[in-house]
Structure formats: C-alpha cells, structure tokens
Amino acid sequence: MSSIAMLPRRPDEAYIVQPFLSVIVPMYNESEVLATCHERLCDALDQLHRPCEIIYVDDGSADSSWSLAAAFTSPHHTVRAVRLSRNFGKEAAMSAGLAQAAGQAVIIIDADLQDPPELIPEMVSQWQAGFDVVDMQRSKRHGEGWFKRFTAAAFYRVINHISEVDLPANVGDFRLLDQRVVREINQLPERTRFMKGLFAWPGFKRTTLQFERDSRQAGETKWNYRKLMHLAFEGITSFSTRPLRMATVAGAMISVAAIVWAFIVWSKTLLWGDPVAGYPSMMIMMLLMGGIQLLSIGLMGEYIGRLFIEAKQRPLYVVMDESVSVGYEQSRET
Ligand code: UDP
Ligand code: MG
Q1: 225 Cβ contact partners less than 8 Å away, ≥ 6 residues apart
Q2: Does the reported pTM lie above 0.90?
Q3: Pocket lining for ligand 1, CB < 6 angstroms
C-alpha cells in the first residue's frame, strides 16, 4: 500500500464543501515572510469569490513558521496546516500537500513570494477556459546570476533531449493543476520524487503563462549548487535510461575502434617487424579505457541505487501535526 493511501483521513472530511481551489504552500523556515504571504494570498483568493483552501506544509522548520501557519485564519477560506516530522525536502512537502488538496483545482506556490499570488485569478481563468495544467514560465529571473541561468538552461536542454516527458524550460513548481491531474500524480508510487517531471508526466491539456519572477522578499534560498546538481541528476536518472544506453554505445564504438587499431598494429608488425614501441599510446589507451569503464560502472550504480531506494518502500514523509480553520462562509453551509 502506498504512503498516500495510509495518510490519516482529513478530520473535517464529513462536513466540508469541496473547495473551489486549493493552494499549497510548502515552507521551510519562512517565518519572516509568512504573514505577508498569507495576506497577499487571501487578497488574491478573495477575488475569486469562491470558497478556497490554503494548505501550509511545514517541512520541519526550526523557526516559528509552524505556530504562525497554524494560527492563520481567513473569513472566507479554509486554512489548513500540515506539519512534517522533520525536513523532508520541498519535493516531499509538495507531495504531502497534493495528497491533502481537495479543491477542484490546485495551485502550488512558494512561501517566499517569488511567485506572485496576484497571478492566481489569471491562472484560474485559464483553467476555466478548459486547460488542465497552467505552467508558469519565468520570463525574467530576478536576483539570479548568469551562472545559475546558464546551468538551468543546460539542464532543461539535456533532460528534454534524453527523456520522454516534455519539461517546459524555466517553469518552476508554481503552477495550476486540475484535480484529475493531481489524482494521477498522487498515484505515482516512486520515492525519488522529481516533481517537475511528475507534474509533466500525466500530460492533459496544458498552457503556459509568462511571468516575471521576483527576488526573495526575505530570508535566503535553501538551494545551493550541490543540492541543485543532485536535483538535476535525480531528474535525469528517474526520467530516462538514456545514459545507460549511451554507455553501451560508447563501449561498442570503442570496441570497433580497438579492433581496427589491432588490425593496423598486427599488419605493421607482420610487414615491417616493428620493434617494441608505443609506450605513450599504450598508457593513453589504458587510462582512457579505465576511465570510461569506471564511469559506466558508476552510472549503473546510480540506477541500482535508485532501485534500492524504491525497493525499500519507505513513506515519502511523516505527518506530525495538523490544524484546520474553516472559513465562516463554508461552515455556515454545513
Ligand atoms: N522549501 C521546503 N523545503 C525545503 C526547502 C525549501 O519546503 O527543504 C520551500 C521554501 O520554504 C520555499 C520553497 O520551498 O517556500 C522554495 O524554496 P527556495 O525559495 O529556497 O527555492 P528557490 O526559490 O531559490 O528555488
Ligand atoms: Mg525562493
């Protein structure tokens, strides 16, 4: 059984109306921006004139993020807070949010206000126009250096070239998903959750909106290059086995070249009786072959490691605490 199915049932499931929209906010040590975030989110949701739900997923914050989020209320919307038992990473936090989201549509948004909540009504109108997924593409990346932009572009080029799913470039986790897409994603059993890929995997009718990504309001990014490298590698190895194929092809090409070369060496020796020579070329070949072999073994190890993690079937996250505050308009309808 998957961890998603084992989640505790929503405490108020029996009496709540289905929210029009669920907004998932994964947060990790975001106490500095959280109040502004909640305010701006509520303002944006009020414009929809429909009962919505906001789900704050506290990814094991060490600051006051949890107590803040658990105390948030809204007159018109349900505010839920889910607290994970430790820091499981944003990918797991989003999965936790998706498992809880009951809305007809679901939006994922960062707590640091880099994704402006003011765009929500526009995303919703695209959804109402019939699209199941609204991807938000960053037209400008404020507060990010050329190196980050360059490596990001390279990553999208590589993964789109070698994997079957189509990852739109410069689309982060900020997006709208119809509930039926969410249902499909919740059923994907993998433990290594490369969410950008999982969001793209179900397909459905998609559209892309452009937006300018702001720089962080406060606090600092939780991503460093080591983590981003890890994420990129995880994305590639969980969505494609092409690297393994490339290792096979490289091996085959080198073998053919070796046979041709052996033939040349052999005929030279027969014709001219070459004395022993060629120490440099032999060293070069040995080192080159050794390198390629180690690389291929390491690559295989990466995939076997993935299998190992999947085989253990550990839950993606552990929920430690939950809190719900139902907006009065919704409780009145019960
Ligand atoms: N986040 C999280 N768990 C983590 C790291 C980050 O839930 O382990 C949240 C974080 O609080 C923020 C969002 O994920 O709401 C994006 O994180 P961040 O701003 O650090 O990433 P960036 O915007 O630099 O890509
Ligand atoms: Mg951010």
Answers
A1: 151
A2: no
A3: 26-28, 30, 59, 87, 89-90, 93, 110-112, 114, 221-223
